[in-house]
Design a protein that fits this description.
Largest sheet: 6 strands, parallel
CATH architecture of the largest domain: 3-Layer(aba) Sandwich
Strand order of the largest sheet: 4-3-5-6-7-13
Shape: elongated
Mean pLDDT: 85
CATH topology of the largest domain: Rossmann fold
Low-confidence stretches: 1-6, 105-113
Number of domains: 3
Amino acid sequence: MIKSESKPRNGSRLSAVQEFVRLVEGGTFRPGDRLPVERVLAEQLGVSKPTLHTVLQELEVRGVITKSKERGWQRRVVVGTPTDASILSQTVAVLTGFTSEMVKRIPLRRGEYESALPSYCLHAITEAGYHALLLHRDNLTTHTFARMARENTSGVVVLWSAIATPDGMELVNSLRDHGIAVVVNSYGSQTEKFDRVMSDHAQGAYDLTRFLIAKGCRRIVRYWVVRSNIRAAEWLIQRDLGYTRAMTEAGLEVLPAIHALAPEELDDEEEHFEVGKRLAMSYLVGLLNQPAPVDGILALNDGLFFAIAEAVQALGKAPQKDVLIVGYDNNWETSGMRKWTPFQPLATMDKKNQSVGQAMVQLVLERARRQLPEEPQCRLLKPELIIVSE
């Protein structure tokens, strides 16, 4: 039996994997060696037996050990160091519609834009001890995935920006067809066959609506903006469900949502703000001047909040006094629109994109290690209500 100094059993999975690789590289374990019994190996690596099971699964995925039948028994034997296997077997990829230059420009801070999610995923991958690979949707073909499958790529995390086009969805289906572990960050029926991780938009809208009700609002309207087919977007439907649930529980009337047509993208930021303001005025004028006026507004996001607040003031109402307005995304402090108005949202919702990235990486690794049932898993992460000002 191969002997090695035992360690306290409080080590982590990652440290145990690294220690085993060092033992192989140092010659303690050689290709073809049969592993010791679990009790002895757990002592050598300084982990508990439950942790050892995940360590062994990880080493199998990396191609360091494999199972071999010996006299009818399944036994694990050493194959070699990770360098003997393809580097892709130690890699988790992030598939996005954002370019690498866009990702580099995204600051990792509390004001989390959706495009920061690739950076959070890449960080989580390296923290898990894997190589991280950033893939762009427009530079791939199904032949790429065939090679990734042959070389046992550990998994692919697919962000919503990668499947915003039919071609992107075709690529993701190809990933699945090649047997590669995939986790998607997207609502919708087209992604239900995949493992998914999303921020819980229904819970977010519910909590914001309840916040406005607690502040005394009784006539709360949703101010959504329509771009392409955003009206039918599943995450927006989830927001509607959360709002409706909160209003119904409070015995209040569910008002029809405003679906404003998004203004065209303009190079001049101030002009863009003014167009948004005038658009909001056109939708809100009747609602603010009727016998039972609106007294609360759910803005689609923090960027829209500023134009809505200025529109409310232009229509003769005091924002955050006569009409309470909340945002979404928790990026109001870094919005370029902030400089055109002194108002700020009473509250907003932080979608916890960093936690979403970590959860996606965790789920794809669990799938790659065969720790999950066959049916697709869906994990919703609760967003955090951020009260900006009382």
